[in-house]
Amino acid sequence: SKAEMGHTCRGTINLATANITVEDSCNFIISNGGAQTYHLKASSEVERQRWVTALELAKAKAVKMLEESDDSGDESVSQTDKTELQNTLRILSSKVEDLSTCNDLIAKHGTALQRSLSELEALRLPPESTDKIKQVNERATLFRITSNAMINACRDFMLLAQTHGKKWQKSLQQERDQRIRLEETLEQLAKQHNHLERAFRGATVLPASTSGTGGSGKDLCCPAKGDLSDEDDDNNEFFDAPEIFPMPDVMGHKNVHPLSPLPRRTGSNISGTSSDISLDEQYKHQVEDTKKEKRTRIPYKPNYSLNLWSIMKNCIGKELSKIPMPVNFNEPLSMLQRLTEDLEYHELLDRAARCESSLEQLCYVAAFTVSSYSTTVFRTSKPFNPLLGETFELDRLEENGYRSLCEQVSHHPPAAAHHADSKNGWTLRQEIKITSKFRGKYLSIMPLGTIHCVFHSSGNHYTWKKVTTTVHNIIVGKLWIDQSGEIEIVNHKTGDKCILKFVPYSYFSRDVARKVTGEVMDPSGKVHFALLGTWDEKMDCYKVQMGTGDNGAEARPRAHEAEDSRVLLWKRNPLPKYAENMYYFSELALTLNAPENGTAPTDSRRRPDQRLMENGRWDEANAEKQRLEEKQRLSRKRREAEAARATEDGKAQLLDRGVPPRCPPQALTPLCPPGTPYDPYKPLWFERKKDPVTQELAHVYKGGYWESKEKQDWSLCPDIF
């Protein structure tokens, strides 16, 4: 039935063109003669015959409907489309008439030309001239024949257009109707799913007095992308949180139980702080609360409802970073802060720095690479796209021995540069460009760019790239995330290499979900360590025991690794209590947006729309987000206009001195896509250089940030908020 299409259908085939063949007593095949072939098995011969008979009847009905639709004329074509078709045919007819007039003129002048040539032939001329005249006469005749053929072809084209025009128009209309039906079906499925989720939550969420363990289950968490609204496409109404929905106040009232009932609120005043207090005052107040100790919770996510399909149906196949999205799809962190979360398991690099063997060190680097994905397993919301020039610092020099800086260095394409230094003997740097495509059922996120890790004492320099992240069930069903692809980690000093394989989830596979395997090998390709684990839980390392062949020569690694050689490289930290109500943030993620004194005015913590969204004031956050994006657009246009003016002035000066101008700036900016205006923006803390190891152009930290912070001199920072 249609109701089952969303969760049990594995494909479709057109019965009108399908071939149904019986294979044996219980098996039969349905094929369309092309790529689609379905092998089906019934429980008995009688059951098989019932299915074949039903399918044959359905095929006959489908064929009959197809024939009727072919012969039904233009009943389904709208009056507007009919008028448009008639106008097109009228224009084609007039053009053919023009061609006919030209043909008549060609024939008239061609006849006159031939008459003149015949008169010339009658004259007494030298033999050479007579031959030339005959050649010209023949060519004139051929010209007339060709022009007649052209006119006839044009008439045939017009007749063909008239004959098939109605059929083409009808096919187009059928495609439109099918698209509308598909949209309506998907929206209906989404609404049904929403009703089921609400009914389930209503059945499981108990009053605060009886829910001693409530709030820890996954079902109490609202979907990360927002519920699908029951409203129409044009009415994206936000719904307030239910009375018993937990939202603790992290601003001051810390003794309130997280599941105690809250008074009903209306409008946009849903944060833990009164809307009468200004954002600056809130920021100062939060700084005072958080500067002594790291915060362990944030306001719970409001239970807002949003019509997801009304927004996403126009995004299929597009680059998601160029589509304006409401904050309802976001989590209260920016992409720069998400990038900094790669350092959650920084102790793996600390241990790697103490390794004497480069192969053992590579095992820890590989575990660090995998650990950066552990925070994504439940994090289905998207981070805020950073504004151009936005920064984020994380100074953990006293507690953990490292400090980190990120800066948004490009807006189109969006690119962020990251640099982290540790006094424990390592440096991590990367420039990541995030590209994403919405494919209808799923969203693919492809990070582009190379990550570098350098260990100071040994000089070992490792590089790798990230794998593709896929968010499934965008429209219907529970959102879930998968990682897939291969990572090659290379030690450019020794030539050691590690290949990590992220196994994509498969419904039919017996493997453990989210599996990661890896091999650590020396420059000759000999495997020394095998890695095994999952990207959301842990990674183990096994020392590969090498056997010997019959001739005493070294043989291939044994299929099994000795259990006694197993070493636990990394294990995921447990999530904080009630994390399902706080966007599934880890302990580190909960602290990233906590206000801090002395940060740059461009720091993500100071971004107003992100702060409003964290405090639960989503309506105000959406308005603020639009203001910031418009401000960024105006700044870009101003820079482009200034660059264009400077270019024109430079050309004029060169021409005055008689010097030809060189190529325009557009040719010198590989960051700009073809056809886009030249944006002369230069990052403040990073500069673009050619990497000597990978030979790639990348933004590298040029220094100066921490010195400016120490002096509290932020005069060079742009006004972006």
From TrEMBL:
Coiled coil (UniProt feature): 172-199
GO biological process: lipid transport
Source taxon at top rank: Eukaryota
Cell compartments where the protein resides: Membrane
Topology term for the membrane: Peripheral membrane protein
Molecular function per GO: sterol binding
Gene3D superfamilies: 2.40.160.120, Pleckstrin-homology domain (PH domain)/Phosphotyrosine-binding domain (PTB) (2.30.29.30)
Keywords: Coiled coil, Lipid transport, Lipid-binding, Membrane, Phosphoprotein, Transport
Residues of the PH domain: 1-60
Region (Disordered): 594-650
Protein family membership: Belongs to the OSBP family.
Name listed for the protein in its UniProt record: Oxysterol-binding protein
Species per Swiss-Prot/TrEMBL record: Prunella fulvescens (Brown accentor)
